[in-house]
Design goal:
The structure is a homodimer. The first copy, chain A, is of the alpha+beta class. Chain A folds into 2 domains: about 5-180, 2-Layer Sandwich (Creatine Kinase, Chain A, domain 2), CATH 3.30.590.10; about 260-345, no CATH class. The first copy, chain A, has 12 helices and 10 strands. Chain A has helices at about 45-60, 80-85, 95, 135-150, 180-185, 190-200, 230-260, 260-280, 285-300, 310-315, 320-325, 335-345, and strands at about 25-35, 70, 105, 110-115, 120-130, 155, 160, 175-180, 200-205, 220-225. In chain A, the strands form 2 sheets. Chain A has an 8-stranded antiparallel sheet with strand order 2-3-4-5-1-8-10-9, covered by helices on one side. A two-stranded antiparallel ribbon of chain A has the order 6-7. In chain A, strand 3 and strand 4 form a beta hairpin. In chain A, helix 2 crosses helix 11. The longest helix of chain A has 30 residues, at about 230-260. Chains A and B meet through helix 8 and helix 12 of A and helix 8 and helix 12 of B.
Chain lengths: ~350, ~350
């Protein structure tokens, strides 16, 4: 498996299937671990960081964590490849732009990705499309067990797993879900919902995690508490109660919009599809905006000749690094906007070229 | 011929054919006349106004000015009918909203319309699509001659024809052309061109004449001088020199846009057509905006399955009064926007209904 192979399709997190897929795009369970007897990264020398990277790379590859594993030496990778991994949510922005020895191991199907030397020595991430938090946790835990057979993790009998940032101490578990909340936003209820999330000790971020603003109608919601609660309890609270509440609110808002503003919603949705199918120049930002409305239209049954999977794939593959990988050339400015529009028209089955030129 | 028959098609001024049709939508020659021995309208009693209206109506109908003539008693007409006449440029806004006895005689094909008791007792208007100013003047003059055989017009041996407003004294002739200048506007040259027009003693107005702002990319340009110059000289200056200059500038701007910003223009044009073909709600204003871009696309050869005639007809028939006449019911707010969108989709051969509802 090569990195370029990834661009052929969307990974697990955009597969467009799974429980509550109308609102929950995907979920993720992430475990933070550090090697016992080795300083946290912030206190490591470069040599130590290199040792950690080499050692963890070897152990992970030998542990047979998946039928096929792609290891990317992130420090040695080009900017475009690193951007590609960020767009696929396999590594964080910080991991992409750091300047020390580091890497990521990616399992076939992208249900699993292990970042080495991100904030902690190890960040094991398991992804599922829709809301399948228990399955994601099970996969992350299974990986954790496999690696713990070979490695000694920093652990404190009272606090639990020790991590570089105190917010991760304890289980080291962070669970998150990517939500699509267009109706709550359209009906101006989103602020209220986000405030409630904060009161429930949830963190809400943008499409690409920490430090990114919520882009359009997509929100990444995650737990803040990792200490003093079991992994199972965290998942139960998050996936059994909190996220289903968001889903319920969003569904109610969609029903209400459909009933009270049917023609206006249909207008927005049909215009979005028409623009995607005919524009000759398209920015990333406008793509996100229009695909959000198209996704809403598909879930509301207003659009029948496009499915969620296609929407998700366009969403991913029209992003800058993906677009350039797919087209196998570097693209800038206007040319990229033109290539994106052409790609989207093709994917949505529209006429490629204007008639009679 | 009934008023409702008018809505079946666009009149002469939107026929979409004629010299320089890519820029000049239509032209108009208008002669102002007043009856000798009768006060100007501002000094008439209501009875006198009624007498003028009755007398002129009778004379015009007996003069056989065209094979078929429709006379509309504007004072007695409903608001929707009056609005319809304004939308077709057959009467002015002022004529539509005045509150004294008045009317309009309209010839078949709408090449000729005579307003009675607008600002002057008589306002004879001849229309042609494209730039056919001499033909329009010839028709107006022919009508003037026919009526002058039967009526005595207020005339001063030194000044010429006398009119209510001094700006019309002399020939009483006002010539005007409706121009479509999207490229000059898009390339930010329009202000410069409009300033030059002012220096050349031309008046520039919006789509519906005096007192209306230029709406979108459509500009009505007319002469300001009527005294001390012959009718022929006015037409020669206007149609032989001034308007062709506008046409030249606009064509240059279009060439330049196409060469330097090809993808951006094609993007705008294709999006406009796509939105017109798929929107479920459409305002008058947005229709004008999108049709302007679509018209530009047709003249640039970027769109081949829509012709100028169709663009012009939609332009006219999607306006509020026309829409209500065509659909034979009163429509307000959202319902009208919905009906307009449906009408436009139908005219542009798009799918009428969304699938699977």
């Amino acid at each position: 498996m090569k990195l370029a192979d990834l661009t052929r399709q969307a990974g697990e997190w955009l597969r467009g299937a799974g429980p509550m897929e109308d609102v929950v795009i995907s979920c993720r369970a992430r475990l933070a671990r550090n090697l016992a007897g080795v300083p946290f990264l912030s206190r490591c020398t470069t040599d130590q960081k290199q040792d950690v990277a080499n050692r963890l790379r070897g152990e992970i590859l030998q542990a047979n964590i998946a039928p096929t594993v792609l290891y990317v030496d992130v420090a040695a990778a080009g900017a475009l490849d690193r951007q590609l991994l960020v767009e696929r949510h396999l590594i964080s922005r910080e991991h992409a732009t750091a300047d020390h020895p580091r890497g990521v191991a990616i399992a076939t199907g992208e249900t699993l990705a292990v970042m080495i030397n991100e904030e902690d020595h190890l960040r094991m991430q398991a992804f599922r499309s829709g809301l399948q938090m228990s399955e994601a946790l099970a996969e992350a835990t299974h990986l954790d067990d496999r690696l713990e057979e070979r490695l000694d993790f920093a652990f404190h009998s009272r606090y639990g797993y020790l991590t570089a940032c105190p917010t991760n101490v304890g289980t080291g578990l962070r669970v998150s879900a990517m939500l699509h909340l267009p109706a709550l936003k359209m009906s101006s209820q989103i602020e209220k919902v986000l405030r409630a999330a904060k009161d429930l000790h949830l963190e809400v971020r943008g499409l690409y995690g920490e430090g990114t603003e919520a882009l359009g109608d997509f929100f990444q919601v995650s737990n803040q508490t990792t200490l003093g609660v079991s992994e199972e309890q965290i998942v139960e609270d998050f996936a059994g109660e909190l996220i289903p509440k968001f889903v319920e609110y969003e569904r109610q808002a969609r029903d209400s919009l459909r009933q009270r503003q049917g023609p206006a919603i249909e207008d927005k949705v049909q215009r979005s599809l028409a623009i995607l199918r005919s524009a000759r120049l398209m920015s990333s930002q406008e793509t996100t905006f229009l695909l959000s409305l198209l996704r809403l239209g598909v879930t509301l049954g207003l659009i029948s000749d496009v499915d969620i999977k296609t929407v998700n794939e366009i969403f991913l593959l029209s992003q800058p690094a993906h677009l350039q990988k797919v087209l196998k050339r570097e693209l800038n400015g206007l040319v990229r906007a033109e290539a994106r529009a052409t790609y989207i028209r093709k994917r949505l089955g529209a006429n490629q070229d204007p008639p009679d030129r």
